[in-house]
Amino acid sequence: MRTRILLIHSFRLFREGLKSLLENESDFCVVAETADARESLSLADQHQPDVVVLEANMAGSNSIDAARELVRSIPSARVLFLSAISDEEAVVDCMHSGAAGLLPSESTVQEFTAAVRQIANGETYLPPAALSRFVDGWRVRSGKDTQRTTELTRREREILKLLAEGHSVRACAALLSVSPKTVEAHKFNLMRKLNIHNKAQLVHYAFQKKIVRLSLAS
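Predicted structure:
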């Protein structure tokens, strides 16, 4: 049975190139394509693709939100991000969205088709270099002071968990029935206590302490 693929990319020429590459493979079938991430859900619902190839950081769209909605609404559709960036932040965003993989835009045709097949078979795909950096950073942080978690208040731990799961400050405030300013204050305090300076470090710490669990779509 051929793998059914939905293509979402803002550049028509690039999208048509991807379509041509995929349809040269006997086990692939492009069932629909669009330049609009907002249209992806209705197309996915109509065509029931096995794999959705989605451009990351599309102009005028939130690709992470689109991927999250696709995964939630159509569990059988597995998302592969095409990204010009494949650093730690991109890997974290991929995990937050529930996507099954992330592929750098500069990848070869062979890497692209292999990634599509891999996630179509129920596996995950992350670029080896980005995954290595992510794991190395995690290992470095795992050797640091293990007592710091106990310094957090119950509310700070709640906010740390929500932020590491990908919720915005405003969303945290709504979930906890407090003001965004209160969440910002707790966020500032917990990041100061933990000597954390950015989103990737915060997520690393939450995974390391098992406040949230590392989970890619499978």
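Summary: The first helix runs from residue 12 to 23.
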